[in-house]
Amino acid sequence: MYEDGLAVPRGPTLLVTQDKSGSPQRLRTCGRACWRAITGCVPALHWLPRYRPRSSLARDLAAGLSVGVLLVPQGMAYALLAALPPVYGLYSAFYPALVYFFFGTSRHISVGPFAVLSMMTGEVLEREVPDDLFPVISNRTNGSMELDVESRDAARVKLATSLACLTGLIQLVLWLLRFGFVSSYLCEPLVRGFTTAAAVHVFASQLKHILGVHIRRHTGPLAALQTLREAGFRVREASAVTMALSFACVIMLLAGKHLLHLPQLRSFPLPTELIVVVAATGASVALDLEHSHGVQVVGTIPMGLALPTVPHICPSACTLADAFAIAVVGYSVVVSLGKMFAQKHGYAVDGMQELFAMGMANVCSSFFHVFPVSCSMSRSLLQESSGARSQVATLAAVTVVLVSMSAAGYLIRDLPNAVLACIILVNLHRMFMQVKDIPCLWASNRTDLAIWLVSFASTLLLGLGLGLAVAVSFALLTVIVRTQRPRYALLGRVADSSNVYLDICLHKEAQEVPGVKIFQANSSLYFANAELYMAALERKTGIFPQAVTASRRKVARKLRPKLFSRMMKVTPVAEALDKPSQSAQEMNITDMWDELQGLPGGLRANRSDSSFVAAESMLGVEGRADHGDSAVQVPAIHTIVLDFSPVNLIDTVGVKILKNVMEEYQRIGVDVFIANCHDSIHLQLQRSGLFRHCQTSSRRIFPTIHAAVCSCLQERPTRVKAHEGNVLSTITGAIATPLSRPNASLSLHKVLYNANM
User: SS3 of 411, please?
Assistant: First the structure.
């Protein structure tokens, strides 16, 4: 028995004697590893032997037949959307689905022509192979000029197969590089806005079939608007019969979509598209719509399968960019739908394997005249709702397509093109209904609404390829802007809990810890927001270190004359300072201070003087001290705690800003601690040498906010002593600057410090 419970086929027993090197065991291990690798690349080898026909085959066949009868008309319709003859839509519905059967991991998605990718392919074909490149042939019967359609279609088919192969190769390269995450940049608002605008492009491109008039297909920026404008001018030339036929088909298709929601038809949905195709073909034959009323029809469809040919790949820069956009969009749709069905039915979908499967589907199918494909939302929803259990339903669907190509080609020769256009438009009604996202996004998230609107507007105005690039760029820009300007908050302790700290603006029960500011920024700290982080910290805490330092130096300059004259009145000190031969090492500052303390009317007797009041207020006492026209800014807090729980990235610029914050706040007597720091960030801060620049060697990083708050409250007296020296250094540095004698600054520092003890 294998590990998964499958029986091993009976056969002759081979006895192998294991030598000391253990080579048979090594061979068995290598064999299992190779088999896992093969089944990993070809999942059908893993799940197909475990398939249970009794419980799943009937459901898969029913679902496959339902999808097949929808896939035939949809494939032909999406071929027209891709500017190709309808038969190539049948090829694109057959071969890619067959390849995905072996390599895919989703059980419910239906791979084949997709409206958005068909529209993107059609734009490329119209741009690279326009009608103007082909000569016209003269019709000698009536003297009219007709386009060489066969040569044009042959050139477009050649380019379409090349585009399909190039799209698959790009997907395979992304799979090899493990770049499946590129689809994550196509967020849901972006995709929904893009597909809504693509639906408008599709609607504009199908107006010529619905109205029965010739409208030149525009490409480039404003193509959809130009097409709609030209259609408006040609409404008077529209065929009444074609419009009536289109209107009837739309009514029947919408009624069929409504009937699909009835509980009685959920087990076997009504094939509305097939019924409409049969009815319209019968009406076209009976009334001779092509010759009597000038209704355009599908025409002759080749019978059977086409012979394989090697695709001709000579990509240009524009074609390569279009292929990359098609590859990413197609893969994103497959992964999103696959994961949605997997979550609903309780199985797993491998995103990287889906990328490999779509790459193989496009590359292998490009040898059989197909255009780029993905999965269709309407067919996938039909396959899932019909009760499909596995990709065996795909085999039933492609069998229907094969029968249509082999035997029923001549039956739909008289099918009007307007019917296929109506099938396309009705299947896009879900995309048109996505405009309902606007009020929902307005109420929930304005940034996502901006992404939706920019994606829609750029795609509508600039085209599918360029519009997608603009939408992705804008989405990435919003990420940068949101990290540059995150939400800044001050946290407070909840009264009923000992270690819970919440935003004081959002939670009234949270109260700030006296003397402590807890600052939080909901983003990482890197070059784009480092300066803004420091500015927000100063603004939220209300302490501007540079302003406090400048104010202290200004007061010190005001105190300089009084303190200098007071020091000169002390005779022993003045005489000691006047001795040029006496060095700093020979002077005994302690003896001088003892001598000063013994003088009557010494410095301690004058503590009520405004100069010493100002100096005393700088020693960490809360409040403001005025000296003349100068005000000393004194911080009302002693500790700032930075909550680093949202920080998962910090670069060298962020480390530099953090070092500046710690140094500047420490200079004015405010400690800066870090709490809730991730291990990777902590290690990066240690490697950058952040704490070597701090003036104190005490602990700076704490596992929680509560631990940081408790530590700063317990060690506050010790820290205040250290900060007093920092404050005095600032004052005495400003006061003693003009003193030319080498020991004057040291003496004054000692005098001022002891005078305020």
Answer: helix
Q: Pick from 151, 44, 148, 55: which is nearest to 98 by CA?
A: 44
Least confident of 82-91, 424-433, 630-639, 643-652: 630-639
pLDDT-based confidence at 394, cuts 50/70/90? very high
How far, in Å, CA of 430 to CA of 428, rounded? 5
> What one-letter code names the amino acid at 54?
R
8 Å CB contact between 157 and 124:
no
Residue type, 298: V
Task: At 104, list the tokens.
Answer: 């895919």
Our measurement of the distance from residue 484's CA atom to the centroid of its chain's CA atoms, rounded to an integer in Å, reads 16
Closest CA to 256 of 282, 283, 274, 279: 274
Give the separation between CA 476 and CA 146, rounded to whole angstroms. Answer: 48
Nearest to 559 by CA among 659, 508, 628: 628
CB 603 within 8 A of CB 636: no
Q: How far apart are CA 734 and CA 628, in angstroms?
A: 17
Give dist(CA 455, CA 469) in Å, integer: 9
User: Would the pLDDT of 742 be above 60?
Assistant: no
Round to whole Å and give the CA distance between 745 and 735. Answer: 8
Instruction: Confirm if 423 and 74 have CB atoms less than 8 A apart.
Output: yes
The pair of structure tokens assigned to 705 is 């906010």
**CA–CA distance, 714 with 691 (Å, rounded to integer):** 21
What is the distance between the alpha carbons of residues 455 and 107, in angstroms, rounded to a whole number? 31
Which residue is associated with the tokens 């249509």?
404
> What residues contact residue 656 under an 8 Å CB cut-off, 6+ apart?
530
Cα–Cα dist 679/686, whole Å: 11
Does residue 251 surpass a pLDDT of 80? yes
Taking alpha carbons only, the member of 90, 69, 38, 43 closest to residue 393 is 69
Residue 577 has pLDDT above 50, yes or no: no
Rounded to whole angstroms, the Cα distance separating 192 from 188 reads 6
- The DSSP secondary structure of 435-479, one letter per residue, reads GGHHHHHHHH-HHHHHHHHHHHHHHHHH-HHHHHHHHHHHHHHHH
Helical pair 545-568 and 571-578, crossing angle rounded to 10 deg: 100
Q: Residue 70 and residue 387: Cα distance in Å, rounded?
A: 16
What are the b/e assignments for 143-165, b being 16+ CB within 10 Å? eeeeeeeeebbeebbebbbbbbb
Predicted confidence at residue 686, as pLDDT, reads 84
Residue 363 pLDDT: 94
DSSP string, 164-217: HHHHHHHHHHHHHTT-GGGGGGS-HHHHHHHHHHHHHHHHHHHHHHHHTS--PP
The three-point CA angle 405-409-415 to 5° equals 130
CB 72 within 8 A of CB 400: yes
Q: Residue 297: left (phi > 0), alpha (psi -120 to 50), or beta?
A: beta
111, 506, 520, 706 from 495: Cα distances, Å? 59, 15, 19, 13
